[in-house]
Amino acid sequence: MNEACGVFACVSTGDWPTTLDVAHVICLGLVGLQHRGQESTGIVTSDGERFQHHKGMGLVSQVFTADILHQKLKGNLGIGHNRYSTAGGSDVRNTQPFIVHTAHGLLAVAHNGELINNSYLRRLILNRGVGLSSASDSELITQMLAWSPPDGEPDGPDWSARIKQLMQQTPCSYSLVIMHDDTVYAARDPLGNRPLCIGKLPGKLHQSTESDAVEGWVVSSESCSFQSIGAKYHREVEPGEIIQLDRTGLKSLGIVPRSDNQQAAFCIFEYVYFARADSILEGQMTYTVRQRCGRQLALESPVQADIVSTVPESATPAAIGFSRQSGIPYVEVLTKNRYVGRTFIQPNTRLRELGVAQKFGALSDNFQDKKIVLIDDSIVRGTTIAPIIKLLRDSGAKEVHIRVASPPIRYPCYMGINIPNPSELIANKVEIKNLAEFIGADSVAYLSVEGLKDAVSEGIKQPGEKREQHCVACLTGKYPAKLDW
What we know:
single chain; seven-stranded antiparallel sheet; alpha+beta
């Protein structure tokens, strides 16, 4: 299972040319979102009239140098993107942001998500005689934004109306940052499936959030990117909301409503795995939600053990929550080598097992002849957890019990998360009652769907609509909107 993409935007306020290093702010913002996509990255900036851009395959630190940021990308506003391919595959042509020529000048777009009616929109564009240079959903969005709205534009381009037209054509899934001339627009689909939030750059570093002086505004897929640039969390972009940012500041242009009887559908796996632990989602910190998942897991699936531990690192908060609820001490049993690549790319089982041994080291003194309950955030294919269990047993563990802080993944995601083919998912290959034997564990238990919903909704501050505002399609097969593929 692979991460969604990440989008970021920055607009300086006040007089232009600005003293704010916009390109560097965007670059650092993308570094903070690197966990959401490592395939390619790009930045487009503007001085208010002319665009400058740089894109490439690889990590942010590999694509952008100091010279590129300070000379090629100098500007007053800009947008950026990190990509992990969903629709379109791995190809430099799919690197974002996309730039197109319109009758009213250049338009740049960066997109996180996946359009559920991709085929319909592609036919619509091709039937208008418009060519497409990539297989990316983001190019479809860019081309649709180049169209004039049905009521026309007697007073010049109405980008708010164009964005609303797009949002009415496709209900999800997307968080967008769009740049035209001297303005950035941010938009989130009416279902709110993908995250998007706003941050404020104070006029002085360490300035309190109550002060009115603002040097600029930023928009990001996650709030975790704000701290490194000195930005203060302002709020989330609401589902269906369109935001305008320019040198005068921030303005909401309204909300495109959902269809009748349609619930909000924020991706629940942002909490489980995708979002960074220090990101704020729906008014609560992701780390805290993961702890509650572990606490709920301990209530649902208790086990007699000597220590609780984790597969580093995203499952650590859940393991701490399990430990606190169960009263079993939390002890580290694995250390992670952060400089080893992903094990799932190895061509055969033996190399994958060796890859796990290279990625994790056993802290054997901590668990000799002890019963371990090992917490993982999710099990997708099961090819990583089995070698870890073997590593622990070979290093002296008496028993290894697996507890998973999310329900079994059984269905594909069509909204921006690259989940493997259903036939590759271990929950569809092995019955849960046989799973422990299959992976070499003493027992296996998952958090229930209801338990996950409870853990997530407990900390949401908004009244009402708590439990049903999350997408759990990959767990239940019930998708929040009609699919047209």
